[in-house]
Write a structure and sequence with these properties.
Distance between the termini: 71 Å
Number of helices: 17
Strand content: 15-25%
Helix content: 25-40%
Number of strands: 21
């Protein structure tokens, strides 16, 4: 109990006891007969006191306890899960938006505004590289154009480099700062990024930010039942609605006005509030004795197929459920296309109800979550929430299978660039060494010239021709669970998984042994093999392994651990194909370490975006940084093949 409520309780008990004593012994008050001001003052003070109690109840009771007690409102509560849509993944522009949030109006008072200076230095270095590549300007010409602002017609973008980090504000800008939370420096930074990105890429970039990346946006409601319920082990919980609190406040206010105005009718209205408040305290939530079931019309559909989900609910208790609400636990990777996974009804004992909705199949293994069952009493004041576990329901959607190659021969090279030399001596075409003759050596490898000169038998060994092994390393770290585009709900990692599958199947079609590695804190490792059984094994891992699920990992990625797994399981002659969108420096570090350990490394970098859709300033910043990473890897001799509609202008390499 809070301190204000404890104080109110003590005051109420004291006054109640005083009233009981006066009723029991009226003679105690017979000597006190107030008149005039003395007669009216108690009523005035009492009325004012009751009104103050109403105000205190609003401040300490409603505002503080409603969220804790799960306060509900009419209709859809904003806290309930929204399984109709996929979870909201982070936008690719959020990192840049966070940097802009560090710039404020108040940091103008700082002697050296660190956030502003760091941002300007980074964008100026970026501008040097972009302008030198796109316009072929010399270093001195780039610096001159940046200083004069002649590199772009956008006045805001030009002023970002020509003006000071703490620009002098005009009268109009000072007036604008009253209602605009964004400083002039931050707005100019957005325009500078858009101008640079439009020079470097073919996809249009606007100076705006996505609404979900700007500061002050309210968090989205949880999209899944598990996210709404939280990590607790409980399966049921009770909540009291805040509607009774509003009635109590109104009753106290009316009672105070009735005392002040000496109006008995207003005092009688307070009885309604007393009854409601009492009922809310003593009433118990309805039972949640229901059984649920879920049926899919297709459990292993092809991608894009609409799957109908039928949910049935039965009241197995002895009480009528006047207000029963069910929210089905749709997996995060599925999108509802028709109907709704939420249902509201009233059920008598032994009665059953059902509803249906459709989801669109997406590649992966999608396990349905428990259902959220909400029961409320007739008044809506008491509410019980419970997790209902039907029989396990799983929808498994495989990628479409590629036809296996029908060639009888085995390729000796992969389709990925790079040299792979065998360390084993034997039959081949390239000289390796000369050794003593051993019984059973082929006569074709006997050094007959040496035999003619010295009379000794020797054997020539060559570099043995062996089939190159390939490991496909899929970047599935938490950072790859980001989206590009305004309404995008598919993270970038899904394109990497699809590309990894195509690479693996292409190698197996050529009968090249291929393995699989998840670059993620959630482990997945398959040693390189070939054959139909291994083909199915790779398909299963990419579809069902948790490392490639639709939910991002919670732990951080350990570069050394992943590198250790690869070096312990393979030889340096193995080719490693890293599939990654290359959206941060950590994956670049991993690729460089592989190259330093002697592996032949190539990179496949899918980066899909919707055609005809412009990017925000934050996404444009991420695209430019990705372009720099691609160029740095290529300059280091590492082959990078890009995929998707968004590629660096004039820098695409698809060999």
């Amino acid at each position: 109990m809070t301190r204000p409520r404890r104080s109110l309780l003590i005051v109420g008990l004291v006054t109640s006891l005083l009233g009981v004593f006066l009723l029991a012994a009226p003679s105690l008050g017979s000597g006190f007969v107030p008149a005039g001001v003395g007669r009216a003052a108690p009523f005035a003070l009492g009325g004012v006191g009751v009104l103050l109690l109403a105000g205190i109840y609003v401040l300490t009771g409603v505002l503080s306890s409603a969220p804790d007690e799960g306060g509900d409102t009419e209709g859809q509560s904003p806290e309930t899960p929204t399984p109709e849509r996929r979870p909201r993944y982070a936008s690719l522009g959020e990192s840049f938006a966070r940097r802009l949030d560090e710039v404020s109006w108040t940091d103008r008072r700082e002697t050296t505004p660190a956030a502003r200076r760091s941002l300007r230095d980074d964008l100026r270095a970026m501008a040097r590289r972009v302008l030198a590549d796109s316009d072929q300007w010399s270093r001195s010409e780039v610096e001159s154009r940046l200083d004069t602002g002649s590199w772009t017609p956008d006045l805001d973008a030009a002023a970002f480099f020509t003006d000071d980090v703490v620009p002098e504000l005009s009268v109009r800008q000072r007036l604008r700062s009253v209602w605009s939370p964004e400083p002039v420096f931050a707005r100019r930074a957005r325009h500078a990024i858009a101008a640079l990105a439009n020079r470097a890429t073919d996809t249009p970039v606007t100076p705006d930010l996505r609404e979900e990346t700007t500061a002050g946006q309210s968090p989205s409601p949880p999209a899944s039942v598990r996210a709404y319920w939280g990590p607790g082990a409980e399966t049921a919980r009770e909540r009291r609605s805040s509607r009774a609190d509003g009635v109590v406040v109104a009753a106290l206010a009316l009672g105070g006005l009735g005392i002040l105005t000496l109006t008995p009718s207003l005092l009688l209205l307070t009885l309604f509030g007393v009854v409601v408040a009492g009922y809310a305290r003593v009433a118990t939530p309805p039972t949640d004795s229901v059984s649920v079931s879920r049926v899919l019309d297709v459990e292993a559909p092809a991608p894009g197929t609409e799957v109908t989900v039928t949910v049935s609910i039965e009241n197995t208790g002895s009480e009528t459920l006047a207000d029963l609400r069910v929210i089905d636990g749709v997996p995060p990777g599925l999108r509802v296309t028709e109907g709704s996974p939420r249902f509201t009804t009233a059920l008598r004992p032994g009665k059953r109800a059902s509803f249906t909705y459709c989801v669109e199949a997406a590649p992966g293994r999608h396990a349905f979550e428990p259902m959220l069952v909400i029961t409320r009493d007739v008044t809506g004041l008491q509410r019980r929430e419970a997790l209902a576990e039907p029989a396990p329901t799983t929808l498994t959607c495989q990628h479409p299978r590629r036809p296996a190659a029908t060639e009888a021969h085995r390729r000796r090279t992969t389709r990925f660039p790079g040299v792979s030399r065998s360390n084993t001596a034997g039959a081949g075409v390239e000289f390796h060494s000369v050794r003593e003759y051993r019984p059973g050596d082929p006569l074709s490898r006997v050094n007959w010239k040496q035999r003619a000169k010295t009379g000794e038998f020797t054997t020539i060994d060559f570099d043995e021709s062996r089939l190159t092994r390939v490991v496909v390393a899929v970047d599935a770290r938490r950072e790859t669970y980001q989206t590009v585009g305004r309404d995008a709900d598919t993270p970038l990692v899904r394109a990497s998984i699809a590309a990894a599958r195509d690479i693996a199947m292409a190698c197996l079609d050529d009968q090249i042994p291929v393995g699989l590695l998840a670059v993620s804190p959630r482990s997945c490792w398959l040693a390189p093999h070939a054959g139909a059984t291994h083909r199915d094994r790779i398909q299963t891992q990419l579809t069902e392994n948790d490392a490639f699920s639709w939910t991002p990992p919670a732990a951080d990625f350990d570069v050394e651990r992943a590198l250790g797994t690869l070096t312990r399981q393979t030889q340096t002659a193995t080719q490693v194909v890293v599939v990654s969108p290359l959206i941060d420096e950590e994956i670049v570090q991993f690729i460089r370490l592989l190259d330093a350990h002697g592996y032949t490394v190539s990179v496949r970098s899918p980066f899909p975006t919707e055609e005809g859709v412009s990017l925000s300033a934050g996404e444009g910043y991420a695209v430019l940084m990705r372009r720099f990473r691609i160029n740095s890897l290529r300059n280091a001799g590492i082959h990078v093949q890009t995929e998707g509609t968004l590629e660096p202008a004039g820098a695409e390499e698809t060999s």
